[in-house]
Amino acid sequence: MLSGKKKLEILAAFATLLLSAISIGCHGFFVDPVLTTVTVGPTATINQGGTVQESAVGTFNDGSTSSLTNVQWSSGTQSVATISTSGLVTGVSTGQTTITGASGTVSGTSTVTVALNNVTAIKISPTTNHAQANGGTANYTALATVSGGSSVDVTATATWSILSVTGGGTGVSDFLVSQGANPEAVTVQSTAVAGEVATIQASYVGGSGVTFNATATLTVTAAP
User: Fold this and answer.
1) CATH number at residue 108
2) How many domains are there within the chain?
3) DSSP string of 121-162?
4) Which residue, 26, 80, 155, 222, could crosslink 182 as a Cys pair with Cβ 3.0–4.6 Å?
5) Could you tell me which of 50, 146, 151 has the C-alpha nearest to residue 92?
């Protein structure tokens, strides 16, 4: 018959084995969530010499989210803006750049626009233009005037839109506006009719945060 001491030794050994099994089982059951996407922000407009702090939030395969700290940052166009290892973007020259934040093999992006300082107005050139129906195009540029009287081409960083349409047709949908091009191309769709006139608007956000607008017209002529 086993002594009390021997029984205690057997029970202790059994308890040790049980705890080990539980530990191994738990370790195999609880798996660290896997990062699936990275959201980078903000998308921002800053002036030359200005800064904006970017951040990254990770989404994991269990649906949870968390702010990421170990992020590798990069700027697609460093001549426009640079970014530090902590995610601080500094504007260098006017234009747009893509900011990328990566954690391992997963990354996300945002866009930072560097705007001119001391903008007083913008204008579109030419102010009037013509294009044939059914695929004709008309090109425009946007020029920003800064204090002191100099002009800077901001065509590619301006926001272009069709403000209004007169003269028949189906309206705004008769015209297709590209974005981020220089010069800006406005294409006349096949639904447009001769004599239709579109008012085109260019909007530019200066370094002060003020939005400047300018307009021009496009008249549709008959296709050959």
Assistant:
1) 2.60.40.1080
2) 2
3) EEEEESSEEEEETTT-EEEEEEEEEETTS-EEE-GGGSEEEE
4) 155
5) 50
Domain termination residue (choose one: 75, 96, 115): 115
Same domain (yes/no): 79, 101 = yes
Distance of alpha carbon 24 from alpha carbon 27, whole angstroms = 5
Q: How many whole angstroms separate alpha carbon 180 and alpha carbon 157?
A: 6
Bridge-partner residues for 112, per DSSP? 44, 97
Whether 145 and 111 share a structural domain = no
The answer to whether residue 72 sits within a structural domain is: yes
pLDDT digits (tens), the chain, 224 positions:
545 555 556 555 555 555 554 554 444 456 889 999 999 999 998 888 889 999 999 999 999 999 999 999 999 999 999 999 999 999 998 888 999 999 999 999 999 988 888 899 999 999 999 999 999 999 999 999 988 878 889 998 899 999 999 998 999 999 999 988 899 999 999 999 999 999 999 999 887 788 999 999 999 999 87
The closest of 160, 161, 183, 157 to 172, measured between CA atoms, is: 161
Which phi and psi (to 5°) does residue 12 adopt? -65, -40
CA atoms within 13 A on the CB side of 96: 17
Quote the domain boundaries for residue 45: 35-115
Count, residues in the chain: 224
